[in-house]
Design goal:
single chain, about 375 residues, two-stranded antiparallel sheet, SurE-like_Pase/nucleotidase, hydrolase, hydrolase activity, Survival protein SurE-like phosphatase/nucleotidase domain-containing protein, SurE-like_sf
Length: about 375
């Protein structure tokens, strides 16, 4: 790999390439082989009991895991099982009850969040009727766990790429970002899942790829040499077991295109009940709380007396004295895009590399943070 201006000092870029090359025995310069690298808290008896029974092993560092796909997703389950099997960490899980993949950095203020204990072997786990950011914020609050700060937060493994501008939509990246805001080092991990090509066992292979980097991260956090004010976004290619190695990358401008599809209320009679059926338990509990207000109940009663007209979700609704209800469904579509810069996350991922992108809270990562992160990655691998 030829030396490029990656926004880093030339000496650091050269050092990075030398270290990565040595790990491959001098082959494929600049690359490292993967082989080397109920209501909570006061009214939920199950949660209170789980917290009371929790035993903290102070000799092991605490690792908190969340994700965007939901607590039952195979990516999270595979990751937690692997971390628990290492026997080195006190693994805790605080993850969304349902899929919150595109929730971005949203939170749920003013509503009751329901938390339930979940049985995941080797871990203390809770599912939360909120977003990934809710999960991290709650986990750090001291209200759920007997501690307030883990040594590391890992968000993933996400099903689908979070490269480029997709990071702004990603609930998985947001979970890691919330940890960084609170001063806790974090990793977000995604698998470049492709329909009709990827399979569930790929998540286990993805764990095998990123586990050495996770171990190196925790080791150097304990030593005090992990880059501060930095989170790493790790993107694993579609075929994890045949990856070409790790590559330090920059965030690209790649993103999937949002596509809004009109849904007819007449062709889909159940559409009117879709949102109510999808309400989380927390939202329903919050609604009950709001209904306790007589004034609020009176306003809703008056509003509900107005006639509502359901129309076909096509074209623009004309003027009417009645309220209009239309239905739409959002999907993200992947467009073919050409990228020539070898240092971009999406380019490295599509070429079969494991992309590792340092992120900061600044609009553009400063050169000092980027240099420190790149130097650490090169030494860790």
């Amino acid at each position: 790999m030829t030396s490029k201006n990656n926004g880093l000092p030339a000496a650091l870029v050269s050092n990075l390439q030398d270290v990565l090359s040595k790990r491959r025995g001098g082959n494929d310069e600049g690359v490292v082989s993967e082989k080397s690298a109920e209501e909570a808290p006061s009214t939920s008896d199950s949660v209170v009991k789980a917290v009371e029974e929790e035993e903290i092993d102070d000799s092991r560092p605490i690792v908190l895991v969340t994700n965007g796909d939901g607590i039952d997703s195979p990516g999270l389950v595979s990751l937690v099982e692997a971390l628990a099997n290492e026997g080195l960490y006190n693994v805790h899980v605080c993850a969304p009850q349902t899929d919150k993949s595109a929730s971005a950095h949203s939170m749920t203020p003013g509503e009751t969040i329901a938390v339930s204990s979940v049985n995941i072997k080797g871990a203390t786990a809770f599912e939360v009727s909120g977003t990934p950011v809710d999960c991290i914020s709650l986990g750090f609050s001291g209200a759920l766990f007997a501690w307030s700060k883990p040594i590391l937060v890992i968000s993933g493994i996400n099903q689908g790429s979070s490269c480029g501008h997709q990071m702004f939509y990603s609930g998985a990246v947001a979970g890691a970002r919330e940890a960084m805001i609170s001063g806790v080092p974090s990793l977000s991990i995604s698998l470049n899942w492709k329909k009709d090509e990827s399979k569930e066992s790929d998540f286990k292979d993805a764990v095998g790829v990123c586990l050495p980097l996770i171990n190196a991260t925790i080791r150097d956090i304990e030593k005090g040499v992990f880059p501060k004010d930095c989170s790493l976004n790790i993107e694993i290619p579609t075929s994890p077991s045949s990856n070409k190695g790790f590559k330090v990358t920059k965030q690209s401008m790649w993103r999937q295109s949002p596509s809004w599809q009109a849904v007819s209320a007449h062709r889909h009679p159940g559409a009117g009940n879709f949102m109510s059926n999808q309400q989380s338990l927390g939202a329903q509990l919050a609604q009950l709380g709001r209904d306790a207000s007589a004034a609020g109940a009176a306003r809703r009663f008056t509003t509900q007396k107005k006639s509502i007209v359901e129309i076909e979700s096509v074209g623009v609704a004309g003027k009417t004295d009645s309220r209009v209800k239309k239905y739409f469904r959002l999907e993200f579509l992947t467009k073919e895009q050409e990228y020539t810069d070898e240092d971009l996350d999406i380019k490295a991922l599509e070429d079969g590399f494991v992309s590792v992108t340092p992120l900061s809270l600044l609009p553009k990562i400063d050169s000092e943070t980027e240099a420190a992160a790149s130097e650490w990655i090169s030494q860790a691998l």
